[in-house]
Amino acid sequence: AAAPESRPFEADVAKLLHLMVHSVYSDRDVFLRELVSNAADACEKLRFEAIETPSLLGDDPKPRIVITADKEAGRLVVEDNGVGMSRDEMAEALGTIARSGTRAFMDRLETAQSKDGSKEGAQLIGQFGVGFYSVFMVADRVEVASRRAGSAEAALWASDGKGAFTITELDPAAAPARGTRVTLHLMEDARTYAERWMLERIVKEQSGHVPVPISLAEAGAEPEQIADGAALWARPKAEISKEEYADFYRGVAGQFDEPALVTHYRAEGRHEYVALAFTPSTPPFDLFDPDRKGRMKLYVRRVFITDDAELLPRWLRFVRGLVDSSDLPLNVSREMIQQSPVLAAIRKGLTNRVLGDLEKLAENEPETFAKVWEAFGPVIKEGIYEDYERQAQLLTLARFRSTASSDGFRTLKDYVADLKENQTAIYYLAGGNPDQLRSSPHLEGFAARGVEVLLLTDPVDSFWVTTAQGFEGKPFKSASQGAADLGAISAPDAADKPATETSPAVADLIAFAKTALGDAVSDVRASDRLTSSAVCLVAPDYGLDRQLEKILAASGQ
Ligand code: ADP
Ligand code: MG
């Protein structure tokens, strides 16, 4: 064989490697994700090439990834039977920075270096994941033996990650029959990566759904399959049973209940992704955490990336599941995630789908939907004031207790359909609980006229009612606020109808009350609001609603 040919890394690779070796970055686990995803990519590439050239598959048509750990030797091997690399391909792929993601990483690094370079750089690795070169976070020597599918020759790439690599011809007998074998000689402080439990944990966590089965072997033992290469979400909906969905949901959501609703679809066209999202039937424990974070997971081609990508608006944070994108690079960074138009499109599409499915559920299975609303209505209602574009849609979806509902829910459509003659507003009363509200004197005048009043008992209600534009042209109006203007609506029992003109006796009483109460009130007036109670306190027309005032006072504003 020819003498080993030593070549320097491209300048940027050398810089990157230096950083990798000296990084204090704690999440070194990502190196395995990168290796497994490269192996899976190689298998997918072969599958693609074999469409044209079936002979490439030879007598070994099934893709596989085998991870072998040798604890004694401190060695870890990741091998695939994918497309492999020729000698030239290897020099190109593992000696330069060809990838746009890594390029972006380097650019960020340049700007970061003016500050505390090494620290910032370490953080950046975590955000980007930097592909193959991340092996040098855990290994001080790495060998890559590879044979291109259909080729008789094999080559060996080797490096200690310090500026140069060698490429030699490799005796084909010592190379994989097809594909690539990456051997890591682990650093002293990275030897846990040769432990079975560790590898199994990382693979299940990060790569459990790559489209190629993964086996794990300890030195000298038979490989054991630890991931089956079948991602549930990639299968057609019609082939997935209710139990399979429920099992998967419990795994992905860490919940123990049944999903109330499964949203599963494949988007094609401009953006390709699969989404599998579950609406739980009981609230997750962190539903009202102040950070209001969602837990939807982002995958890129079946490799787990992050559960921090905010794939849904906060008011849908109870939805659990994942999105698997075909368009994003594997090493998408946090910034890229926040700014990516791809993700913006996914977010919008997914929100539409989940809302659409909730609407269908409300229509077709009202009892199930009532449970969902009971559990998550208070969260969904945050969207009414946060998401102006969807306000009308969310108001249509919303369910309410009211003076006209016994134990069931009412919709605003129901409310508007039952408006009294001359009624121009949707009345509500906000407060602690429905029973308390039902006995409020503020409701007397409304009850006398048969005017329905929504009973709003969630803290969030006081916020959206003040900003919502109304529903079908009818503004929201507090029954405890301002002039109730019920005069135009006739009460069925004429005797109960308060006089529209204020009698001299009442005028005297009002004058007396104003003097006696002084600055404690801003006005005293006769009202249509009451029938049997003599007086009640109301908030002014344009001031804060009393319930909102209480909430703001409680939160120290
Ligand atoms: P990326 O996978 O994003 O392209 P990497 O740094 O992970 O970037 O890998 C660089 C390149 O090395 C890959 O694009 C591929 O061409 C090659 N490569 C790495 N691992 C393998 C493998 N197991 N089989 C075939 N090619 C590989
Ligand atoms: Mg890669």
TrEMBL record:
Homodimer. Molecular chaperone. Has ATPase activity. Residues 335-550 are annotated as: B. GO terms for molecular function: ATP binding; ATP hydrolysis activity; ATP-dependent protein folding chaperone; unfolded protein binding. It comes from Hansschlegelia zhihuaiae. GO terms for cellular component: cytoplasm. The keyword Translocase does not apply. This is Chaperone protein HtpG. Pfam families: HATPase_c_3 (PF13589), HSP90 (PF00183).
